[in-house]
DNA sequence: AGGCTCTGGTATATTATTGGTTCAAAATCG
DNA sequence: CGATTTTGAACCAATAATATACCAGAGCCT
């Protein structure tokens, strides 16, 4: 997700990737990492580069390496990214968004300011340039929903939405989600985003909430449609 | 990505964007930023401009740059996100519950089972024995709302509600909350809890949601009433 | 025990990449 | 207009990355 797709990976990048695997729990305590020569292939980097990454991780205490044997994980997974949030299914996530986002619309009407709306306008524009770029659209889409949450001035709500966004970004079904994003679907979303923004701007809480429900319903439909294929 | 059609970005704008990426968590501790030459392309600015932005960020302590290597995040761990939950105000919390719990009622109607309802019934009984014991009541009350969330079978929602419950327990205003809990108020809550349980049992989603809203409204009132004294 | 293979550890010469610097032209803004 | 910022380009020095070869310990099998 870091900016560019297939950029060449440096030692620091690889260290970051592995560090995240460990924090996330995909690599658990005492697991052995693949041999350096294999990692070198999977990450498309020379062995020396992998080596530097591992040395770095060892100094940080994430990993321990035993000559002739392998390198092993020595770190408990990060507490903050708990199982509940990692194992959330797409449907659980949709239900949660159904709970939160319509009400966020209402609160945004109450507490949103002009600067917020201008920012959301920018994001709408950006999304409308992304009809054929699902990845860029997704990014802007996430930002839009976060900007909406920021309107509420409610740190707790924003935090919760961020957690949810993390679920969305780290997942296999992010890929699946991108598949459902043909230019027609993106077009529909764009219209709905505009409508939401307008309703918030004109201070119509229930209308904004209802359009948001509609928006989420659209998203849920394309989700179930995708999982049937 | 998004560069081409965007308006022109100055050094300050770019610094702000990157700062945002760091605060949001997309760029974590020890991550290496893309090379200046790449950033210059993605942000549609000259390298010198990027350079200024980075120099600025370095002075602010967000980033550290090593010649020949790259520029790295030194994560000033973001206070707002980790403490968002601890610093939540009572009103923020009420708004969040207003978003979540009515919809949780609807989902509970969909997915709740007899065993769940029996458990909630027990908790209602327990609460009704607590007319004069605010602390014990609060405990059972928290359990009741969690049991309701468990009906949804949605791990993500349950997790979120648990986080919120943690906010509630750790706070000074827990004490304040106990003050508002005279036996009359507890009595009202008990009636509302019963009504919610019944509506969920008889599978009336909107009725359950509406009573929950009423319930939260009652709680919010006694909260504001308490903070005025 | 002996032999084989897989593992990390080390060394090195070469190439590629990155930040650091400078400068003059162009663009922007008050 | 004048002041400031941005641009684009070139070049430098520091560092990282690659490719290759060889070593030594661990583990497994006969």
From TrEMBL, chains A, B:
One MF term in the entry's GO annotations: DNA-binding transcription factor activity
Domain of life, per lineage: Bacteria
Record's keyword annotation contains Transcription: yes
Domain HTH gntR-type: 8-76
Keyword set, alphabetical order: DNA-binding, Transcription, Transcription regulation
Organism: Roseovarius litoreus
Pfam family, one: GntR
Protein name listed in UniProt: Transcriptional regulator, GntR family
CDD domains documented for this protein: WHTH_GntR (cd07377)
InterPro entries assigned to the protein according to its UniProt record, in alphabetical order: GntR_C (IPR011711), TF_FadR/GntR_C (IPR008920), Tscrpt_reg_HTH_GntR (IPR000524), WH-like_DNA-bd_sf (IPR036388), WH_DNA-bd_sf (IPR036390)
């Amino acid at each position: 997700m870091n900016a560019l797709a297939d950029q060449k990976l440096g030692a620091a990048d690889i260290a970051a990737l592995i560090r995240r695997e460990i924090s996330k729990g995909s690599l658990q305590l005492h697991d052995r990492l693949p041999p350096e020569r294999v990692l070198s292939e999977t990450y498309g980097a020379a062995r020396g580069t992998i080596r530097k990454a591992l040395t770095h991780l060892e100094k940080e205490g994430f990993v321990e390496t035993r000559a002739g044997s392998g390198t092993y994980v020595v770190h408990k997974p990060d507490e903050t990214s708990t199982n509940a949030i990692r194992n959330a299914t797409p449907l659980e996530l949709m239900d949660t968004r159904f709970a939160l986002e319509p009400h966020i619309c209402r609160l945004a009407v109450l507490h949103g300011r002009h600067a917020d709306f201008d920012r959301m306008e920018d994001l709408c524009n950006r999304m409308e340039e992304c009809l054929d770029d699902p990845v860029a659209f997704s990014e802007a889409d996430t930002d839009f929903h976060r900007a909406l949450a920021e309107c509420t001035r409610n740190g707790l709500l924003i935090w919760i939405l961020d957690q949810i966004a993390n679920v969305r970004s780290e997942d296999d079904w992010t890929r699946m989600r991108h598949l459902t994003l043909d230019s027609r679907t993106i077009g529909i979303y764009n219209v709905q985003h505009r409508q939401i923004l307008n309703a918030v701007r004109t201070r119509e809480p229930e209308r904004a909430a209802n359009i948001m429900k509609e928006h989420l319903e659209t998203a849920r439909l394309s989700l179930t449609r995708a999982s049937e294929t």
